[in-house]
Predict the 3D structure of the following.
Amino acid sequence: MGLKVVIVGAVAAGPKAACHIMRLLPDAEITMVDEDSLISYGGCGIPYFVAGDVADEKELRSTSFHMVRDIDFFEKAKGIKTMTETSALSIDRKNKTVRVKSLKTGEESDLAYDKLLLATGSRPFKLPIPGIDAENVFAISTLTSGIKVKDLLIANKVGTAVVIGGGAIGVEMAEAFSDLWGVETTLIEFAPHLFPGAVDEPCGNIMADCLRRNGVDVYVNEGAQEIICKDGKAVAVKTNNREIPCDLVIAATGVRVRNELAVAAGLQVGLRGGITVNSRMQTSDPNIYAAGDCSEIVHMVSGERMTIPLGSLANREGRVAGTNIAGKNAHFKGAVGSFIVKAYDTAMGSAGLTMRAARMAGFDPACVWISTGDRAHFFPTHAALYLCLVYDKRTRKVLGIQGTGPGDSDSLSVRLDTAMAFMTQGGVGDGARVEDLCNAETAYAPPFSSAIDAINNLAFTAENQMNGYLTMMDPMEFIKMAEAGFPDPDTVIVDVRTWVEVEPFVEKYGKDKWIYFPYATSRENSLDVLPKDKNILLFCSSGGRAYEVIRVLAPAGFNNIRFVPGGHAFMSKLSRKWLPESQQ
Amino acid sequence: MGLKVVIVGAVAAGPKAACHIMRLLPDAEITMVDEDSLISYGGCGIPYFVAGDVADEKELRSTSFHMVRDIDFFEKAKGIKTMTETSALSIDRKNKTVRVKSLKTGEESDLAYDKLLLATGSRPFKLPIPGIDAENVFAISTLTSGIKVKDLLIANKVGTAVVIGGGAIGVEMAEAFSDLWGVETTLIEFAPHLFPGAVDEPCGNIMADCLRRNGVDVYVNEGAQEIICKDGKAVAVKTNNREIPCDLVIAATGVRVRNELAVAAGLQVGLRGGITVNSRMQTSDPNIYAAGDCSEIVHMVSGERMTIPLGSLANREGRVAGTNIAGKNAHFKGAVGSFIVKAYDTAMGSAGLTMRAARMAGFDPACVWISTGDRAHFFPTHAALYLCLVYDKRTRKVLGIQGTGPGDSDSLSVRLDTAMAFMTQGGVGDGARVEDLCNAETAYAPPFSSAIDAINNLAFTAENQMNGYLTMMDPMEFIKMAEAGFPDPDTVIVDVRTWVEVEPFVEKYGKDKWIYFPYATSRENSLDVLPKDKNILLFCSSGGRAYEVIRVLAPAGFNNIRFVPGGHAFMSKLSRKWLPESQQ
């Protein structure tokens, strides 16, 4: 008799664990249970299925060799029994059984286990507002709901849509609606910027700007207060500021752990409800494991326990759980929340902590932002990257990276993943220092990177700031000043670009506010044009020249100069309102 | 009086150090000396300039903000004195002076230094064969030589070319010649495969195949014995096998360290001539530093001392040297030889050790090869990656990664750089284990990667092999067998793909040699078709199904099965000769 394994949940962690166990322990008797009829699919692909990039939903639940992963596939090819449309009701830990109920027949039965894996995942957080249950409000949490939405689009029943929630699903769905289907789309986000959990304000604003450039209305600081319905259907979304008519609503406001089974069985759960596991993905009952969205893992930088609903982590955790269930030994040390999203021409992502998260975790964080090329600046396909490195001032440790880049290449991925690898060195609470990233030996050839790679450039800048060679201002502080017309009489901008670049700014802001101090002759320029008693903001096209000039001016006693991060390239990406008219 | 710094060499490490020193120490007095008239250029961009991707050579020596880095630029913008067309003759360490000579006027003078940086780089290795000095034989070691070659192409004087040497410059030049200029190009390589220093045979063969598909004749195991000249001009290259007529020869046969100054000054140099430095890039004379191609650095995996001629390393080393020269403290721990090259539609690269290098360094290495997708297999732009992980059997340490991927994306870069970051953890001799790569938390969204990323997949496969769950055969062993028609009567291929895929192979090789054993029903198939007394090679489309079937067959006593790495996808990439006619 083989080991009896019951797995609750058959989307990502569950099937991964099941298949892995079967390979390690070919005589295992595995039963997977899932409430849905569709299983083992790439949930992150649903927006691409709705958009049409993926033509058939079957592609999302097929193997790379084009076999559909259905009950039959798991049975015949994998030797795994699967019960779909079946709910797990309770766990009897003493007798080691799981009570399940068929949603089709109502029939109940008990499944005996030697080892049990809970891969119950998460469910969409349901906003507590009127109208949320209307039939045309979708959470896109299952493939089934994605299929329903696409059917409505195909039937031409969606002219306008409101997306509630500016996270990955919200933004990807907004793109899917507006780009292929020509749906008039509005996205609202309760927080002050998009992706508040994953990035700080500048990245969120770049993504909002990207959506707006592509015709999506975006409102931040706006919560949905009511979904106005007519005949049981949503017809508008009411926020604190407006009422937005719509034929369909996507409610993508995050997820909550599905831990009811675990809680009812007396298993330990964390503060946010994630099922507590050790590094072997073992719960407080040694015969029960948990993996995927429902399990609580450790943030390797902050050391805090958290849940992260990502299919990629679910697969990795599922494999670790599977190894241990099969009687071998594997560990999952934790995660840094690596994240990436694409919308239109823009990629945005992060790994580790944002500034806000770093402060909350008790670090003494600072950050730098750079505007840089993703490959040799002389190579034809080069594009801009805007990157931020968050580090701890006390320990010089790398705490996080975030940024945006071109949507049609992997040039942002490379830098995120490289930084991730450094941040996870040595396990929880260890990691790398900024100096380690300075010499990160990325592979170089002009079509792929630069002799001084973006990640090195980012670390160099952070090191220069840590060592007191430059002081970078907050990007949003500059934007707020700029959009207000630089009202502070004690602040001037010193622009070290060439006259042709500087002239429109001098014209707009006046030569006493926007001072021309060309880089090329910076060692010979008269210093009399620079007011020593004022706050100087050093400005150039992307940052390199401004830093250089700061170091030229330092010996002359100009030590209170601040550096405008990423220069014109980055600042104009964050807001165009303050630019000369010809550049708006 | 500021610190007097003399820097010999003004291409990569020299200018990087000079600029960095000036920023840290604004009153430093820096003099850079170089024999060439062109300085501070991206040498790795020369093939792209010849190809036409880069229109003007000035782009290779411009900043990202389009200023040409010439003497004037360094003087005015950087405050650095530069003497071009000037040779450094000798170092007087006692009096701390460098004797220099103008190549234009012949005038000699002494430059006093407090700190000296040797960034003398490397020179092309000159093959000791007749004709190597002919005027139309070029090494592409300087921008000046690149300009000469491009002028000849523009003047329509090159109909045929021979490239000696199958490394990065050779391959990039072959592409430049044949792709844009339509030059009939032949590339010869002395070693058994291209890029013998950076990759093992499979990768080298994929690159050779890529060149051949694009019209370049490639001959390996062929050394140039003579360059046949007429009126002082090369007209043909004679190898051990043939004589190849040509209008131009590129001799790209590697480089040798330029260490004469250092040696004459009594500085310590290593076995291969690299100038010995500590982690601060300081030579055996504490007032003299060395950085770039001429310095000897430590391989972080093998611990061996080596020289690596790469502009990217030169920049990083130059910055470390600059920091230390400026009286601060920085370290360069070593390198793993990260490397990438593009030719036509193919990217190829590596980091760490090849199998051959790992054996030579005293490890007990093994490797796995996989054929995998670079992003979600349902995402339209997905492409194939062929990756190899080299690991140490004793310690389970990651020793190296290598592979090929699409030339028009960064999807190979991401995996190389991620692996690099793991391999360099903790410094020389430390690094990561295969298990660490299993959980490498690469950022996932379908446009950029897979839920189980290629790097995870690669590590999973290696772990499975380490743990005895599969035995992978050497890819070239399979190809050799296949090209010979599988002559060994005791070897059969068991193909687990679908009948439509398998049929042409059964037709070609016979049903007793090429056995159909479909994956979908592998748990039900009769085992009688499988000869227990023969060597079974398990074959599928890319590897996943074959592994699965191996695990199904294991309990039935089939334990001597070997796995054909990367299946049909990889094997057909390595050679098409053995395929059914319809697929050749």
In short: Chain A touches chain B through 113 residues (CB under 8 Å).
